[in-house]
């Protein structure tokens, strides 16, 4: 059993490897391979991964660290994909260029997400072709690479027969916070959900078989935010950290979705539900439903990319350097939690045909009856050896359907524009996105994005 992590130099790699290693018996894993195009970055992450496997957990799992495609993918059973094309330098551009024009600057939402998607489409197709060439015929690619909605649509169009499942850990991060707020175990929660990636709603949250959404609504209304009570003891400190983007020094990656500017995201859940209380929104809906407000409390000179570089990135690589110099390890420098557990548990479900329930991004095919058949939607599914068995949902109310169709068509136009090299279709994708105030602003942002993405984007005519 061989598992390859494509994007092995990611800061998430150590946590994912630990999740795999802790499930060694269920996965029967013999070898873990790290593959990345950034050799030195991956080498450093590999040092920490080696410590996790062989010093911390004392397992006999073989570790291979490589930049060679054949070595990375030959006979692989699973490929966990987590590529970030252009790195944090380009993420910073995705966030800051729209903000300069008074629009939402976010890595997966709005024009930033569309720009990131344009960079990722063809590298993902190349990855699929490499895995097809070298891996076992029964391979599965489990994709965490963002923006997952655009990536999954591109894979549907360009590589429809690929054995790839696109997933996202944000709904799971939300459930982690919900469980803490309701003071229950997340293992006791079963939820229903519909949407597109980073664009959906929880319609039911059951705890031990009892509907808990009314109780959660009351909690959110009382606290005017969706965060556990333990986090709210010092609201002033939370707000100060949000404004400065400070994630703190102590155990910086535990609850990574609740630090720094994330405060506004969880506050936004309350604000959305004050107007539309029926469903619990995915936190990313803030960027579409509160574009004006999120631009107002954003700092165009210091965005989330800078926060992450100064905290998670710096902490991890400083910790690795310290380990190489002194032999002392600080486990708090890497994140191990739901992000890694989710993808490792999905691999177990596929391998062992468990029919466990997961939230996945998959072709609609009637699962949401009033959405297009070929839409890539995010819905619950039972996972077995043949892949997702989608759990059909009720028809979507007109408000949510209207929002989803606008977002879906924006993403479809982007993929078409990238494939055809069509400036007009990409401009239509930018203009149609709900974060845009006008076609003129959309064109200004697109032209700036073209300049910033030279060497990454296909040429547009």
Automatic annotation (TrEMBL):
Chaperone is among the record's keywords: no
Cofactor names: NAD(+)
Cited InterPro entries: Glyco_hydro_4 (IPR001088), Glyco_hydro_4_C (IPR022616), Lactate_DH/Glyco_Ohase_4_C (IPR015955), NAD(P)-bd_dom_sf (IPR036291)
Key word Hydrolase present: yes
SUPFAM superfamilies associated with the record: LDH C-terminal domain-like, NAD(P)-binding Rossmann-fold domains
Glycosyl hydrolase family 4 C-terminal domain span: 193-435
CDD domains: GH4_GlvA_pagL_like (cd05298)
Note accompanying the cofactor annotation: Binds 1 NAD(+) per subunit.
Keyword annotations of the record: Glycosidase, Hydrolase, Manganese, Metal-binding, NAD
Family: Belongs to the glycosyl hydrolase 4 family.
PANTHER family linked: 6-PHOSPHO-BETA-GLUCOSIDASE-RELATED, MALTOSE-6'-PHOSPHATE GLUCOSIDASE
Name of protein: 6-phospho-alpha-glucosidase
Record lineage: Bacteria, Bacillati, Actinomycetota, Coriobacteriia, Coriobacteriales
